Amino acid sequence: MPEAVQERVPVDVAVGVLVERDAQGREGRFLLTSRPAGKVFAGYWEFPGGKLEAGETVEQALKRELQEELGITIGAAHPWKVELMDYPHARVRLHFCKVYEWTGEFEMRERQQMAWETLPVQQQPVLPGTIPVLQWFAAERGFVGGTHVG
Which of 11, 14, 44, 74 is surrounded by the most beta carbons within 10 Å? Predict the structure, then answer.
């Protein structure tokens, strides 16, 4: 008989896709941060965010996480896409929100790094859950070619 497959319950994660816009409202560079030392996939580049706590909405979690990790206060979080990712350590449901407004100075409170990027992304390695977002950006922006180095 085949082994019973245990279904892993997804962990909900709010993800902030911080995007600069020009005077005409066109989207430009976006923010990536590295995963800090001591975490799974340390050193990989991703969009910042974190797990939802009990009773939190995606927007509440995103505001809390970006304040805790980056020291900024975001404006509205615009729900964009949801992606289910299976990692060796967890199954995660990533709730991607575009964010166009924030206040405060960026502080890397978890000793992570940050980089403002365009396509193709130069930072590497890129976290697997980040790659679909880069592909969505490419589709939206009419970008042809590889979305990231490596």
Answer: 14
